[in-house]
Design goal:
Blueprint: E1 4-7, H1 18-30, E2 37-40, H2 50-58, E3 61-68, E4 74-82, E5 87-91, H3 92-96, H4 114-125, E6 130-134, H5 145-150, E7 153-156, E8 175-178, E9 188-192, H6 205-209, H7 217-238, H8 254-262, E10 265-267, H9 269-276, H10 279-283, E11 288-296, H11 305-315, E12 320-327, H12 332-335, E13 339-344, H13 352-357, H14 359-381
């Protein structure tokens, strides 16, 4: 019986996407075990690349929609259908993300999540039963207000006029009118995010994430006040205050909007992706699991897909080894989570530019080295 192996890496950012990493690892393994039965499961943690990883891991369907970017310009955003069309996968980065803006265009005061709402509406109209929303990489700090507008709500000032787009405008909201589009009424919303911050306060969306989206210290204070005021208005509308629930500060407050108006369940991005890819089911009967990421360090313990893969495999009794771009401080902690061995792409002093340029070739070679080491262990075990 051929050796059965599950290959479940995430992207090596700037070098290879998750599918390319999985393919390169599989090629390295087949250099040692040419007859191996290899199941490639590209994975992600809810951020940029989640749609592609899940569509490719499940043989799903890719779609695109024309939506508004964070500054209101038209952009083509990719999303996916999996589970025979029952589940849509969208990522905020595709419609409302930082990658869509030049550094000089980052504007946390004006950036809007409207395009993400448009994606959700297109997905709902496709007849899905659930929508998985990845919140990583957002450019917005508008508490999801733009998305709520796209989904049918109106945010009005004291004079009954629509307030503008962006987080700064939320301090003028006096009331909320309208209803969420009927197409979303029976759709389950799952939010993939490892951010546990509340909406407002010192650990809220504006204070913690606003600066990376272009907010000055003055902007952060103004945004926090505006989001707090908006949360008051929302609480009056829905009859409860959710601003302090874990994860409501994710993606500039998109977690807040989805939780408040769509009863979204906010869960670990990596866990949701593994569940959607049926990872545990596909792990049954495997003799080995390979995972990987661009850098393994102490931060990998907190929601990174590679360590999440290792935890699942350990529970299933399947040994795990990892291919990584580099090792950082604290990487040893990952070994305690089920990763039995690690192979780095750098076999000599190599600059980052070379590692990224030769990424796929080096991933293949690292996987082959790991396979040869595992093969020695298997042979020793039969002595």
């Amino acid at each position: 019986m051929p050796l059965r192996i599950v290959v479940a890496p995430q992207a090596f950012k700037g070098s290879a996407n998750a599918h390319e990493v999985a393919t390169a690892i599989a090629e390295g393994l087949r250099a040692v075990w040419p007859e191996a039965d290899i199941d490639q499961i590209p994975i992600a943690d809810g951020g940029e690349g989640t749609v592609r990883a899940l569509v490719e891991a499940t043989a799903g369907e890719s779609r695109t929609s024309e939506v508004r970017d964070p500054l209101g310009r038209p952009v083509r955003a990719a999303w996916g259908l999996i589970d025979d069309g029952a589940t849509a996968v969208i990522e905020m980065a595709a419609a409302s993300g930082l990658p869509l803006l030049a550094d000089r265009e980052r504007d946390a005061l004006r950036a809007s999540s409207y395009g993400t709402g448009e994606l959700m509406l297109d997905a709902a109209r496709a007849g899905v039963r659930r929508i998985l929303v990845g919140l990583g990489g957002s450019a917005t700090n508008d508490a999801g207000a733009g998305a709520l507008r796209a989904l049918g709500l109106r945010l009005l000032d004291a004079a009954g006029k629509d307030v503008g787009e962006g987080g700064a405008a939320l301090d003028r909201v006096a009331r909320i009118e309208g209803e969420i589009a009927p197409a979303l009424k029976q759709v389950e919303i799952l939010v993939a995010s490892d951010v546990r911050n509340p909406l407002t306060g010192d650990s809220g969306a504006s204070a913690v994430f606003g600066p990376q989206k272009g907010a000055s210290a003055h902007d952060v204070r103004a945004l926090d006040r505006a989001l707090s005021h908006f949360a008051d208005v929302v609480a009056r509308r829905i009859g409860r205050d959710v601003r302090n629930e874990p994860g409501t500060g994710a993606a500039g407050g998109m977690g807040f909007a989805l939780r408040a108006f769509l009863a979204a369940e906010i869960r670990s991005g990596a866990e949701l992706v593994l569940e959607a890819a049926r990872f545990d089911e596909r792990l049954v009967g495997a003799a080995l699991c390979l995972t990987g990421e661009g850098r393994l360090d102490e931060q990998s313990m907190f929601g990174k897909a590679s360590v999440t893969v290792a935890r699942h495999a350990r529970r299933a009794g399947v040994p795990v080894v990892a291919v990584v771009g580099s090792l950082g401080p604290g990487y040893e902690r990952a070994l305690g989570e089920g990763i039995a061995a690690v192979e780095s792409l750098a076999t000599e002093a190599t600059d980052l530019e070379t590692l990224m340029r030769e990424g796929k070739t080096r991933i293949r070679a690292a996987a082959e080295r790991l396979a040869r080491a595992v093969q020695v262990g298997r042979q020793l075990g039969t002595v």
